[in-house]
Design a protein that fits this description.
Blueprint lengths: L8 H10 L3 H51 L8 E2 L2 E2 L7 E2 L5 E13 L7 H11 L5 H9 L5 E7 L1 H10 L4 E10 L7 H4 L1 E7 L4 E7 H5 L1 H5 L8 E2 L4 H17 L4 E8 L5 E7 L37 H10 L8 E3 L4 E3 L2 E3 L8 E3 H7 L2 H11 L1 H10 L26 H7 L9 H12 L24 H17 L13 E10 L5 E14 L6 E8 L17 H12 L23
Helix pairs in contact: 3-4, 3-5, 9-17, 10-12, 10-16, 11-16, 12-14
């Protein structure tokens, strides 16, 4: 750019010739130069302001578009994640049939150490053992003094423990957020819920996974974010469960039993209202699985679902029902009960002396093995097997408990005539108490097959017909007589007509044969008898009632009174009104003259 001189010689000379002041020329040129510089700087500033304005407009436009996008999108819960891998920490609640919480989540913390940042390792180890007595001080000190840079100390700690660790003041002791599974009702429904533990873990999150029971069966549902935290609702009634468990526990101790179980089921829908297995455990502190001994000795073992037993004379009801259904006998048909019944090298006897002939109904009421075996001979092995299969007694239970999947009833591969005869009174076939409850529900609800479920069912579709309604009604009457004047008289509950059948079976010896002084006693019952709404099965393992001169082990003395007390406690809670029998002695009657 050509720079104009402030004092051009030509103009200076001309100004002098004309008598003008030459300094005015310099001042004028200087003014013009300054104006040109000012105009140039103003244009540059205006350009910069324009660029800056465009930048701010673009930024605010982007923020506005992002806010609009967030406002229009579906809300989603934040998720915790560890470095490199996503860890889902949310898990849905589990509720009982009335919406009360059985399992939920609790926010807590984990405790870990970073030894390079620790100041006084010996003091930290000593203080930690004072807070957590199950830790070993020397082991902690060795870990802190080693080369490891990260050490888990506790997967979950309480707020009080967290504060105590914080008071130690060592910067190498650190906390990570955790969600733990909480079972606020403790041991109630422990075998139904099963329990949960940690799967994948990170410093800032941990994955909760089911390890047993419905927690494992419905693990994917409970962890699925697509369900938006919808709870899992079970058929269990917490009120009934809390009323029944103490009775069963007291009965187990009173009868000196090794274990006990009970199943209370809706006779029409198959919903399990209460399921108890003893001994049990607290799922908040789930014990480790046993590494030695028998699995059934562990409190983790679900005797109501996993235990398969010979349930004795409870099977006589199925024998009588099939005879009625197939038209082989009527309720009053006389059955030859003279014993012993000899079949080859086998002899079938009754536990006590029986009349030589009894009606089919009395055969069940008095519980005759010989009579049941003779009826089974008339039925035949194949037809008996098909009938029991239709009742669901020869297949794994379809209930939604992971433990039920691997439990198969035990029965002879060669279902011969002698097998049919012994199975007719419950020997030679082993099923779980849950199987028995579902079969009795089918037997007494009008003949429709029942599939047990642990989920609340709004409306259950009737199952396939197994028995005619007439046979079902006849069996109600027969089993009511068992309680009124048969082997289960201790099962009578005032106000609630109970029908049922006892079963006492010798317990198999693992080395072969049967124990002579150990039994499985069972009472399969239904109430109210005239139109059963609920089925209750109580089973005691190795009971022994010792109030008399000699120990008594039969179901009539052991399982029946326990079941009666359970019905007495739970029937009102189930909404069943007691039937008031008329007082015939003091009744007032009107007569006409």
């Amino acid at each position: 750019m050509t720079r104009t001189p402030l004092r051009p010689l030509a103009r200076i000379l001309r100004a002098r010739e004309e008598g003008d002041n030459p300094d005015a020329i310099e001042r004028e040129n200087l003014r013009r130069r300054h104006e040109a510089m000012r105009d140039k700087l103003r244009l540059r500033a205006e350009g910069r302001l324009l660029v800056l304005s465009l930048f701010f407009v673009s930024a605010f436009a982007m923020v506005g578009l992002r806010m609009g996008h967030l406002a229009a999108s579906e809300p989603s819960e934040p998720r915790s994640a560890s470095a490199g891998h996503f860890i889902a920490t949310q898990r849905a609640d589990i509720l009982d049939r009335n919406g009360r919480i059985l399992a939920t989540n609790l926010l807590t913390h984990s405790l870990y150490a970073q030894p390079p940042q620790m100041i006084d390792k010996a003091r930290a180890a000593r203080e930690l053992v004072a807070i957590f007595p199950d830790l070993d001080e020397q082991r902690l000190l060795r870990q802190f003094s080693g080369e490891r840079k990260f050490i888990w100390i506790k997967r979950k700690i309480s707020p009080e423990q967290m504060q105590q660790v914080h008071d130690i003041g060592d910067p190498g002791l650190m906390f990570g957020p955790r969600e733990m599974r909480l079972y606020p009702n403790g041991r109630l429904a422990a075998h139904v819920l099963g329990g949960a533990g940690f799967g994948r873990e990170g410093v800032h999150s941990a994955e909760i996974v089911g390890v047993a029971g419905v927690e494992k069966t419905f693990d994917e549902f409970l962890r699925d974010p697509a369900n938006a935290g919808a709870p899992l609702q079970l058929s269990i009634d917490l009120t009934i469960q809390s009323a029944a468990r103490p009775v069963l526990w007291g009965g187990m101790k009173l009868m000196n039993a090794k274990a006990a179980s009970m199943v209370l089921m809706d006779a029409h829908t198959g919903e399990v209202i209460s399921l108890v297995s003893l001994p049990d455990f607290d799922p908040n502190k789930r014990p480790a699985p046993p590494t030695s001994g028998q699995a059934s000795d562990s409190p983790l073992f679900n005797h109501a679902v996993q235990g398969v037993y010979e349930l004795g004379s409870t099977f006589k009801s199925f024998t009588a029902a099939q005879a009625l259904e197939d038209g082989l006998a009527q309720v009053d048909t006389l059955i030859d009960t003279k014993g012993p019944l000899v079949w080859g090298r086998y002899k079938i006897r009754d536990s006590h002396r029986m009349p030589p002939k009894m009606s089919l109904a009395d055969m069940i009421v008095k519980s005759s093995n010989v009579g049941s075996a003779r009826v089974a001979q008339e039925i035949g092995a194949e037809r008996q097997k098909d009938f029991l299969r239709n009742l669901g007694l020869l297949e794994p239970s379809p209930i939604e408990l992971v433990e039920a999947r691997s439990v198969r009833p035990l029965f002879p591969s060669n279902w011969s005539e002698i097998s049919a005869m012994t199975i007719s009174y419950g020997h030679g076939v082993s099923v779980s108490p849950l199987h028995l409850a579902a079969a009795y529900a089918t037997l007494l609800n009008g003949g429709r097959k029942v599939s047990p479920t642990i989920l609340r069912t709004a409306r259950a579709e009737p199952g396939p017909r197994v028995l005619s309604p007439e046979v079902s009604i006849a069996m109600r009457g027969i089993l009511r007589d068992v309680v009124r004047h048969g082997t289960a008289t201790m099962g009578e509950v005032p106000g609630y007509n109970v029908a049922g059948k006892t079963g006492t079976a010798d317990k198999p010896n693992p080395v072969g044969g049967y124990y002579e002084d150990r039994v499985i006693s069972t009472f399969a019952s239904a109430f109210p008898a005239e139109n059963p709404r609920y089925v209750l099965v109580v089973t005691l393992d190795e009971p022994e009632e010792t109030s008399g001169l000699e120990p008594r082990r039969t179901a009539g003395w052991t399982a029946v009174p326990v079941a009666a007390e359970i019905i007495r406690r739970t029937a009102p809670l189930l909404g069943l009104r007691p039937a008031i029998e008329p007082d015939l002695v003091n009744a007032v009657s009107l007569t006409s003259n």
